UniProtKB/TrEMBL annotation:
One of its GO terms (molecular function) is tRNA (guanine(46)-N7)-methyltransferase activity. Gene3D superfamilies: Vaccinia Virus protein VP39 (3.40.50.150). The gene is trmB. This is tRNA (guanine-N(7)-)-methyltransferase. Substrate binds at K146, D178, T215, K216, F217, E218. It catalyses: guanosine(46) in tRNA + S-adenosyl-L-methionine = N(7)-methylguanosine(46) in tRNA + S-adenosyl-L-homocysteine.
């Protein structure tokens, strides 16, 4: 593999490089991945100056977001199992964006998603309107295990309130992690977030969805002897 040779104009519009985030952002893409980024991001990308209202979305289509989609496995699964949904994929790691675009393209589902490499906080604050989303998935977010780094975890009180404000009434938030400490952290924050109801009851976790695939990160946890836990909230 080699370093990307995307044009400055393309990078300035679609690639996240100046906003402060924790974790990896940019990296390497192959020639084939670069070609597909250049083909598809002008069509399905969500650059920083646009909102979902500018994204040519079919009217009345349920909008479901996956925050941190990794290499796109779960995004493809959602597109295949929910053909009525339009998916908003948020991922700051460029190689993950490239892989997801290729996988969605290979599956013939690429036009049923909108992709951004911008941070989720920016996307929800600036590009998503209040009560615009029907659901949000957060799968295996970075656990930031050291106590001094817990402030970097994506699920915080302010971020939870932001997610709720962008959900329609009856909309959902579903989360997954194989880190028990992080599972309890997310549950404890979301259980007391105004407007949310824990489907499993306060303090509870749901059973794994029957059709849920094992993502790359979940498989890593299984190999290490860790079992994933799942949370499901509904906006009242």
């Amino acid at each position: 593999m080699r370093r990307m040779r995307l044009s400055k104009e393309f990078r300035d519009q679609f690639i996240q490089h100046e906003m402060r985030t924790h974790g990896r952002k940019n990296g390497f893409v192959t020639d084939g991945q670069e070609a597909r980024l250049l083909k598809w991001l002008p069509v399905i990308g969500l650059p920083k100056e646009k909102t979902l209202a500018d994204a040519n979305l079919p009217e009345g289509t349920p909008l479901v977001m996956e925050i941190g989609f990794g290499n796109g496995d779960f995004l493809v699964h959602l597109a295949q199992t929910h053909p009525d949904w339009l998916l908003i994929g948020v991922e700051i790691y460029l190689p993950g964006v490239a892989k997801a675009v290729c996988r969605m393209d290979d599956a013939g589902l690429i036009e049923r998603c909108r992709i951004t490499q911008l941070p989720a906080q920016f996307v929800l604050t600036n590009q998503v309107a209040e009560e615009q989303l029907d659901g949000i998935f957060v799968n295996h977010p970075d656990p930031w295990p050291k106590v001094r780094h817990h402030k970097r975890r994506i699920i915080q009180k302010d971020f939870a309130a932001l997610m709720v404000s962008r959900l329609k009434k009856g909309g959902f938030i579903k989360l997954a992690t194989d880190k028990p400490d992080l599972a309890e952290w997310m549950r404890d924050i979301l259980d007391v977030t105004p407007g949310l109801t824990n489907v499993a009851g306060v303090g509870g976790f749901i059973e794994r969805d029957a059709d849920r695939p094992e993502t790359k990160f979940e498989q890593r946890g299984i190999k290490a002897g860790r079992i994933s836990q799942f949370l499901h909230y509904i906006k009242a």
